[in-house]
Amino acid sequence: KKQAEKAVHQKKEQSKTKCRKARRRHINLVAEFNRRQRKNIWLETHIWHAKRFHMVKKWGYCLGNSPTEKSYRACYRAMTKHCLLQDLSYYCCLELKGKENELLKQLARICSTDTGLTFQEACCLSGRFEGSLNLYRADRYPEDTLGPVTFIWKPRDGSENRQLWIWMHPALKQDILRELKAIFQCSEPEEICITEPVTTSIQEEKQVEVVTSCGNKRKKEDKEGEKAVPLKKIIGDGTRDPFQSYSWIAQTTGIVISDRSMEILRYRLIGPLSHSVLTETLKAASVQTV
């Protein structure tokens, strides 16, 4: 009798574990992936890298470190003869908005013409080219180096207000952000990021809807039934708490600093066929004026 009761009890415990088919369902996979990203954020290409690379957890992200197979010759061949793509989306992006004169005046304090190009270089200021330079603490050149960054201006639209994006390594983000907030006196948060439950997409809803027209399909319910908890949308990146402010404004000058990390994807193409790949991939949209 005791053995029979024990066997029944074990069966009940085992029944709590979902079968592989249920675990691999799209809505369950998304919930599991979101749970695994609570500490280390995944890039958009994480699944592809996870199948082919040894993954490491650095700077709040889960990144591919080294390939699981011997692909060095293939990568070298792609760089020299074809095209090689790298995912640099883990690089952090800070966005600055405000009057061009005010931006250039304060940004000149954290860089120097002795090191090369600056933010006010003509070719970069027009927005046609991306620039790179080393940043320093305000009025401290050549001491107190913050680190190398790349930047690009949004092309002029006839207004005196400009938009600037600065890209940096995640290890340098907090120091550079603190220095930018200090020189522009952006202390008051403009927006605070709060996670909110989001509904599933139309395709996900169609997968779980009852199809009445065909009589051979029915809805597969979990143990929670229709009262399943909606999926949480993960907001923020590995270098920022989701509940921290992500935009600051200066009351005197109106300069706005926004943290756009993980909101803009960034890829690097290396090789002689990089331009051809971009030409075949990107298609110009037809602009309709009303």
TrEMBL record:
Pfam families: POP1_N (PF06978). Residues 4-98 form the Pop1 N-terminal domain. InterPro entries: Pop1, Pop1_N. GO terms for biological process: tRNA 5'-leader removal. GO terms for cellular component: nucleolar ribonuclease P complex; ribonuclease MRP complex. This is POP1 protein.
